[in-house]
C-alpha cells in the first residue's frame, strides 16, 4: 500500500497523464496561476520551489511562462517589467553581463538619471530659443521677448514630460530644496538630484554650443564675448539689465521663483483642482506668464541649475572668467535667490490655500 505522502495515491491521474494534460492545456498568462481547469491542482509538495533570478551565465531574464517566483498577483507587475526585454539585448546575448549591470544601475538610479535627462532637455531647448533670437535678430524687441517667453515655457513642459513620471520632474535645485523643506522629499536624495540637475544643464549647454558654434563664430569671429554687439554669453546664462542693482535683481529672482512654486503647488495639488495629466503644460504656461510679467529685469533664471551649469560651461568654452565677473559679479544672484523664493512661495501656498481650503472642503463633505 502506498503511503499518504505518495503523490500517485493522492492524485487520480498517472504522471504521464498529468504531463499530457498540461501539454494540451493553453499556456498560462500573468493574470492566472499555474494550472488548468481540467486538471486538479497537484499537492504542495509536488510544486516546484521558487528559484532566484537566473545568473548572467544562464541569461539575465527568466524563460518564457510564469516563473515560480511570480505565481502570485503581487509579483505580476514585477514580472511584466522584467519580461520587457529591449531588442538590443536580444541581438547581443554575449553582452548579457554588461546589460545586467546597466539594468541594475538604471533601476537603482532611475530617478537621478531622469533628473539629468529632464534638465538637459530644459536647457537645450530653452537656451536654443535664446540662440535663435540672439544670433538671428530679425524681429522687434516685443516679438523677441514673446518668443523667448513661450520658448522657455514649452521647454519646461517638455522637460516635465521627459522626467515627471519617474523623478517628479524637479529639474530645478530650488524646487528640490523646497520639496525637502515642505513636502517631505527625502533629504538624502537632495545632493544627488542637485548634482544631476547641474550636470544635465552643463551637458545641455555643451550640446547646444556644438550645434550653433558655427553661427557663434560668424557673429564674434571666434573671439568670445559675454556682452556687447558681439556678445553671445546671454545664450547660456542670465544677465540683468544694466540699470538694475544687485539688491533689486535678488528680489526679482526670489519673487519670480516664489510665484513659480506657488503655481506649481496649486497645479499639482489634487485636493485643490485635480488635473495632473495636464500639469506639465500648465506649469509651462506658468513660466511663460512669469517671463512676460516679471522676467524682463533679470532674464528670469528662477533655476540655479539652468543658470550655473551653462555659466560654468561658457567659462570652459573660451569665455574665460567673464561670465562670473560681469555686472559686478552678478553670477551668485540667480543661484541663491531661487532657493529663498522657492521656500517662501511654498509657505505662502500652504498658509493661504492649502490647509484652510482642505478643512473647509472636509466640513462641506460632512455637512
Automatic annotation (TrEMBL):
Q: What keywords tag this UniProt record? A: Membrane, Transmembrane, Transmembrane helix, Transport
Instruction: Name the segments for region: Disordered.
Output: 43-65
Q: Name one GO molecular function term.
A: water channel activity
User: Gene3D superfamilies recorded for this chain?
Assistant: Glycerol uptake facilitator protein
What would be one Gene Ontology cellular-component term for the protein? plasma membrane
Q: Which InterPro entries match?
A: Aquaporin-like, MIP, MIP/Aquaporin, MIP_CS
Task: From the Swiss-Prot or TrEMBL record, state where the protein is found.
Answer: Membrane
* Main localization category: membrane
The organism's place on the tree of life at top rank: Eukaryota
Q: List the CDD domains.
A: MIP
Flavoprotein as a keyword?
Answer: no
Q: Does the keyword Transmembrane helix apply?
A: yes
The transmembrane segments are 112-136, 142-162, 193-212, 243-267, 279-302, 330-352
Pfam families in the cross-refs: MIP (PF00230)
Topology within the bilayer? Multi-pass membrane protein
Q: Which family does this protein fall into?
A: Belongs to the MIP/aquaporin (TC 1.A.8) family.
Identification of the protein by name: Glycerol channel
